[in-house]
Amino acid sequence: MKKLIAGIVLCLCTMLTFAQNEKFVKAMEPKVAALDTTRNINGLKELANGFERIAIAEKTEWLPYYYAALATVNMGYGMMDNVMSGDPSKIDPVTDKAEALLMQAEALSKNNSEIYVVKKMINSLRMIVDPQNRFMLYGPVAQQALETAKQLNPENPRVYLLEGQDKFFTPEQFGGSKTEAKKLFETASLKYEASKPASNIDPAWGKGVLQYFMAQVNK
């Protein structure tokens, strides 16, 4: 009888966990899909807030914090007047928020290539709002984050996408190259084709951005 009761309890717990996971995934799916196509600041802010609400409810899941951080840093990039100028007094608080969210994701998932990709994006944003004064501080931190992301997962296509963007936007006298950028974008494309995310809510973003840059380097 005791074994029967224990089996029933175990079965009920399994069913409850499955139902909770299914609810979590369903809450995440439309937001994850929207994140890869949302470019306007208000839309990104709404997504970031939505992911953060899920994160607060699902305290053991790293993905909601990760996506909240990604949406927030993308919002910061959207606030730039152009690719190399912005208002630090407006953008720094956004970057601080993205970093705080990402730290919470990292607390739940250590040594994660995807988290280091967003670390790179955050530190690059800190740098480019004031490159003259911040390059020496944040440039190496951003580069190290990207190198760590690659070491943790050499098959991560977003690593090569960001490397390509760096080459694309950096002036040639400082190591930039449209030719090298094209090679990196082509590598990213191959990695995207081979990539098989574990679920519909695991990171798969960046294909639309890659297509944009591929069009630019092929002109």
Fold and architecture overview:
The chain has helices spanning 2-35, 41-57, 63-78, 88-108, 113-128, 131-152, 157-169, 178-194, 207-217. The chain is mostly helical. The protein has two domains: 28-153, no CATH class; 155-219, no CATH class. α2 packs antiparallel against α3, α3 (63-78) runs parallel beside α5 (113-128) and α5 (113-128) runs antiparallel to α6. The longest helix is centred in the N-terminal third of the chain and has 34 residues, at 2-35. It is globular. The model is unreliable at 1-20 (pLDDT under 50).
Secondary structure blueprint with pairings:
Blueprint: H1 2-35, H2 41-57, H3 63-78, H4 88-108, H5 113-128, H6 131-152, H7 157-169, H8 178-194, H9 207-217
Helix pairs in contact: 1-2, 2-3, 3-4, 3-5, 4-5, 5-6, 7-8, 8-9
Task: Please give the alpha-carbon distance between the first and last residues.
Answer: 74 Å
Structural class: mainly alpha
Q: Determine Rg (CA atoms, Å).
A: 20 Å
Number of domains: 2
Count every beta strand, where a strand is a DSSP E run of 2 or more residues. 0
Indicate the mean pLDDT.
90
> What count of helical segments does DSSP give?
9
Shape: globular
Q: List SSEs in N-to-C order.
A: HHHHHHHHH
Report low-confidence residues grouped into runs of 5 or more: 1-20
Strand content: under 5%
Largest sheet: none
Helical residue percent band: over 70%
